[in-house]
Amino acid sequence: MANCTKCGAELYQEDTVCRNCGAQVVAAQQAPPYYQAPPAANDAEKADAEQNKLMGILAYLCILILVPIFAAKESAFAKFHVNQSIWIWIAVIASQFICGILRFIPVIGFVFSILSGLIGLAELVFVVIGIINAAKGEKKPLPLFGDKVPTLLK
After folding, report:
1. Fewer CB within 10 Å, N side or C side of the chain?
2. How many CB atoms sit inside 10 A of residue 85's CB?
3. Could you give the C-alpha distances from 84 to 1, 12, 33, 89, 137, in angstroms and in order?
4. pLDDT tens digits for the chain (154 residues)?
5. Cβ neighbours of residue 48 under 8 Å, at least 6 residues apart?
6. Handedness of CA 14, 20, 25, 29 (dihedral sign)
7. Cα dihedral 140, 57, 135, 71 sign
8. Can you give the pTM of this predicted structure?
9. Phi, psi of 62 (to 5 degrees)
10. Rounded-to-integer distance, Cα 128 and Cα 134, Å
11. 97, exposed or middle or buried, with CB in 10 Å at 0-12, 13-18, 19+?
12. Can you tell me the distance from the alpha carbon of 85 to that of 127, in angstroms, rounded to the nearest whole number?
């Protein structure tokens, strides 16, 4: 709480005049608000995201990942989405390879066939989430992958 400059009485945030002496309260004397919004992303990051949204989207579209890798080398936004996409593809290829081998086990092979289909569906969900984030201009980590994975492009 602030104090009156004339009489020293305590002032409340909503006070426009001192309750003790009636002096006008200067706005600078009022207490700061309890909630302060977090600082906005700097303008360079926003401009980078705006300029490279298409590159972020292309990063999730299979072989088109090469376009942002070579065309937007300096963009932190494009690199972020390329990195997220690479980890999606690494996880999908590895799990599909394992399911493909285990599919040939006579008794439980059908389970891995179903699991393979579910992995393909999960891949589609992650790709769509990534494309939506890139189209919005956000550098938002994907669920399960997040920022726990190492950055491959620097």
Report:
1. C
2. 26
3. 47, 50, 38, 9, 14
4. 678 888 888 887 778 888 888 888 766 444 455 555 555 557 788 888 889 999 999 999 988 888 998 988 888 899 999 998 988 888 899 998 998 888 888 888 888 888 888 998 999 999 999 999 999 998 888 887 666 666 766 6
5. 75, 76, 77
6. negative
7. positive
8. 0.65
9. 45, -115
10. 10
11. exposed
12. 8
Dist CA 131 CA 38 (whole Å): 26
Taking the CB of residue 106, how many other CB atoms lie within 10 A of it? 6
Which pair of structure tokens corresponds to residue 118?
Answer: 């579910």
- Identify the pLDDT of residue 38: 52
Tokens of residue 21, six digits: 């002496």
What ranges do the domains of the chain cover?
Answer: 1-36, 43-136
In order of 9, 14, 16, the CA distances from 121 in angstroms are 66, 55, 61
Q: Where are the alpha helices (DSSP H) in the chain?
A: 43-51, 53-58, 66-71, 76-102, 109-136
